[in-house]
Queue: 2 jobs
Job 1
Amino acid sequence: MKKLLGLVRDFWHAGGTGGLNWHVHAYSARRQWLATMSEIERFLQHVEPNAKELVLIGASAGWMMPPSWLARFERIDAYDIDPLAAPLFSWRHGQALRAQGIALQVHRQDALASLPELLQRHPHACLWFDNLLGQHRYRVRDEVQAEQEIMALKQQLQGRSWGSVHDLYSGPTQDMAWAHRITPLTRAGVDAGQLNSQQAQALLQDVGAKDVWSDHLTSQVFASGTPTTLIPWPFKDHHCHWLQAGWVQDFKL
Ligand SMILES: C[S@@+](CC[C@H](N)C(=O)[O-])C[C@H]1O[C@@H](n2cnc3c(N)ncnc32)[C@H](O)[C@@H]1O
């Protein structure tokens, strides 16, 4: 019975950050998310990955994944803990990748817990953390542990090229007027180390934030000096996420 309940829970919300719940929302909100997706694509267009292999972590179904980014690799290994991610990612992206001769392998695995093993398994790949680090605190349910693990990633990734898009802050907004101004609100070239509380206030003001907002404990994913792009995401009605995207070439501390 316990096993069955675990299976149902996994299927429904996959540790709280994916599952059917997420897929139904992502599918129905896909039009509302278009401008945010274009900004992510624009960010990735400026990245020069120096590898032909990509390890994609938190791939889900690739609802927000620009095909133009995937097309830059010869082999992609997509990882997610969600049991629905592999079939849905293959359904959404598999055919186009096959047509371009790009090899795709989808894996169900906790890629954060097994990162050292993954790095050994894919010694020549670059890595893209696809909007999962901001949810780590909700999976781990221990803020100190979550923040430490997020901060430690850069040590683990020394010598590799990698990037991430993740939630910085999220919360309710007074209205949705800001959602029509995603491009003008997006900020490029923000030094990850310079993100202070004054700037955070400006971000919240831009989207008419109200009530209590969540800090996703991701402000130190990147080392100081890393240029990042901040993108608003109209996640659902009257609810905004500020995403941070960044890329690090051959990272050295
Ligand atoms: C917000 S969704 C990502 C959306 C996805 N990038 C897209 O474009 O559809 C976060 C995903 O990360 C996955 N995830 C969370 N923690 C993970 C972990 N430790 N290892 C692998 N996947 C994880 C969740 O199952 C979920 O599918």
Job 2
Amino acid sequence: MHDDVMPAEFWDTLYSERDQYWTGEPNASLVREVSDLVPGRALDLGCGEGGDAIWLAGRGWRVTAVDISQVALERAARRAAETGVADLIDWELHDLGHDFPAGEFDLVTAAFLHSPTDLPRERILRRAAEAVAPGGTLLIVGHGAAHWQDEQGERHEHSGAGHADLALPTPGEVLRSLDLPDAQWKVLVSEEYEQIHTAQDGRQLHRTNNTLKLARIT
Ligand SMILES: C[S@@+](CC[C@H](N)C(=O)[O-])C[C@H]1O[C@@H](n2cnc3c(N)ncnc32)[C@H](O)[C@@H]1O
């Protein structure tokens, strides 16, 4: 953990180290879970360089995209302009641990809203649920545990790659922490899926990610 660093400073420094940090593509879970929805108002929490927000706007969503990093937001806004969707996205600088964008949304999405700095993720996600309009959707995509295998096929728990000491809950744990009234919400998807990628040290890392998709009924 980087408890000693201010979150905004941490993320601005990280984004400043490279011209582009993430792939620029929307997250696969977002594409999978949102493609069938009728576009309306969307809120993207921890939007980073804007891959998800730009994809949503390209499908007709009116997006409020929030991040703590001014560097990431400026980069995302430039890309949105190049892609021709600038008019559909409001980029807002917020430390979600302290304040939250106003309004009600047909889709609230939080994709990999994790941070090695102080981040009250559970509280933010509960607030995210409150921002979903009746009839709307809450989508939470996150990292779970990770492991790697040695040449003998033996499995080793992984820590590191920026995720050491982070709380990486299962979808069931995320759902419980939201503490939602059953009568008001329906669970549409609660699943884990494995993603394999090559870590900086060359090891094949098997990461369990998870998707939680909820419909607000009333
Ligand atoms: C792992 S990245 C994910 C970015 C993007 N959602 C994606 O999937 O590519 C986490 C993002 O959350 C943002 N973030 C971290 N702490 C935050 C906070 N307290 N308030 C708002 N955004 C925050 C970071 O700046 C970063 O862009």
